[in-house]
Amino acid sequence: MDIYDEVMELAKRRGFLWPSFEIYGGTAGFYDYGPLGARLKRNIEDLWRKFYVVGEGFYEIETPVIGLEEIFRASGHLSSFTDPIVECESCKEFFRADHVEDRCPVCGGEFGEVSEFHLMFRCFIGPGSKRAGYLRPETAQGMFIDFPRLLRFFREKLPFGVVQVGKAFRNEISPRQGLIRLREFTQAEAEIFIDPHDKSHPRFDEVKDEVLILFPQDADEASRWKLADAVEQGIIANEFLAYHIYLTYRFLIGVGISEDRLRFRQHEADEMAHYAADCWDAEILLDRLGWIEMVGIADRTDYDLKAHEEVSKADLGVFMPYREPKVIERMAIKPNMQLLGPRFKGSAKRIADALSQIDAGSLGDQEITIELDGEAVTLTRDMFEITRVKEEIRGEKINLHVIEPSYGLDRIFYAVMEGAFFEEEVEGERRVVMRFLPNLAPIQVCVLPLLGARDELLKISRKIHDDLRKRGLIAEHDESGTIGRRYRRQDEIGTPFCVTVDYETLEDNTVTVRFRDTMEQLRVRIDELHAWLISELGI
Ligand code: GAP
User: Fold this and answer.
1) Which ligand 1 atom is at minimum distance from the Cα of 183?
2) How many domains does the chain have?
3) Where in the sequence is the domain holding 109, given as residue range(s)?
4) How many other C-beta atoms are found inside a 10 Å radius of the C-beta of residue 36?
5) Is residue 125 domain-shared with residue 71, that is, in the same domain?
């Protein structure tokens, strides 16, 4: 067994994770999070919120997982969200054409023609089949199409950010790598709407000297780059993107990913999504699977807002005032009302309005013909003048650009599990420890009365357990098996602290606290235990 197998075996056995629909034989690409896994995942999500919602001041919204067909027509998914597929002519298995050599890896058979397979799950909204919908392949679109309401909510103050944490669905052709390629998975995405003319970041100064491992498009290998240099030399497109690459780095280190297994790889020009001007993947080195993309951080430009504007016809623009109003000179048509009035009577005003819409710059000396109520009306040269006018322009209507960090939380969950997995030999026995960071551990503390305990010890340990739970800690109570076995059980699920109630407790109101990673022990007073745990857990 390699680490992947060890981790997945432990995950199943200890209630972190298992394939979905097991009693019906299961199907690839779906996983259930069990009691401990769901908690660990929630803790990762909550830490993500601490970074993006609390730290950056972005707001979380929640939009439907089903989207209308129009949304995905606009976004480009309907026409281009496909993968190349091949079928083995002997065993009839399907494969992603770009993931296999020229023979079937299952039976050695030959492949048929390559075709394109659509990755969105289609459904119908309401009875009948008139209204097609799709399960969203990313949470992002819900945030783009809410743009007018969000703009108002943020009172048009730029930049502003919105996030969603939720399910996304892709009908992957042959998902075979556990949590890495799922058909239903959780994304945490932020869409940050910024002024396209100013991609500086107000807090770039705080991060500009940080050094990250970058793997730029044109480089042969990854190397260390100071962020300020990467932006100055045009390696990272702008400060805003660089700031968010750094924030992603902080988050991934914050969930326990080790620095030497983390790099940021820039997309090749032909790999870049249709919407992106620059895109970097945070990749983590996994034991069996190699470098795997966990997060994509992209400058999506105005692609999405423009696309939805075009299809929905809604106004998704913003009026951007210039710092100083611009004065421009242009040629304008000045109607001669003394002639137009008597000649066209009640229609004179409408004709004058129509004239003022005409671009006068391209007009020569000729007459102008306009259409009025379906009829051509010719205006001779004496009916208008062409004059040079000065005009003050205060701003322009544009579409904002979007910077998007897009996290795959299931992949990160797996990377956290693999990174936490640790085994050693202690007194001739194998000890497996999940070294989760204390603030992420699914169980924060386990209270154990000494075995063969007199009732008094059990009473005290139950009271401590109750008290810790009432005060908000995730605590377990375990009274079965030898103390050594009970410690090992907690080690395997990554509980950072075990609290043992023993005979000394009866004498001095202290308990033994055991550290998961070092197995060191310490005596702590019962009345100080809660505060001690809070400070050690870093919560
Ligand atoms: N809104 C941009 C977007 O969706 P993406 O690179 O397609 O970009 C973002 O997806 C992240 O979602 C990826 O970095 C990856 O972690 C995760 N992801 C994508 N497809 C996945 C799948 N089939 N199973 C699990 N995670 C997936």
Assistant:
1) 23
2) 4
3) 82-118
4) 20
5) yes
Question: 224 with 274: CB under 8 angstroms?
Answer: no
Buried-state track 61-86, b at ≥16 Cβ within 10 A, e below 16: bebebebbeebbebbebbeebebebb
For residue 436, being part of any structural domain is answered with no
- Going from the Cα of 262 to the center of ligand 1, the distance in angstroms, rounded, reads 17
Which region, left, alpha or beta, applies to residue 481 given φ > 0 means left and ψ of -120 to 50 means alpha? Answer: left
Question: Do 484 and 447 fall into the same domain?
Answer: yes
432 and 216 in contact (C-beta within 8 Å)?
no
- Pocket probe for ligand 1: among 63, 189, 293, the residue whose CB has the most ligand atoms within 8 Å is 293
Question: pLDDT of 435-477, one tens digit each?
Answer: 999 999 999 999 999 977 578 999 999 999 999 999 999 999 9
Same domain, yes or no: 163 and 152: yes
Is the Cβ atom of 295 under 6 angstroms away from ligand 1? yes
Residue 41 lies in a domain: yes
Centre of ligand 1 from the C-alpha of residue 137, in Å: 9
Q: What is the pTM of this model?
A: 0.91
Is the separation of the CB atoms in 387 and 331 below 8 Å? yes
* Alpha-carbon dihedral angle through residues 274, 276, 278, 280, given to the nearest 10 degrees: -90
In ligand 1, which atom is closest to the CA atom of 293? 14
> What is the CATH classification number for the domain harbouring 370?
3.30.720
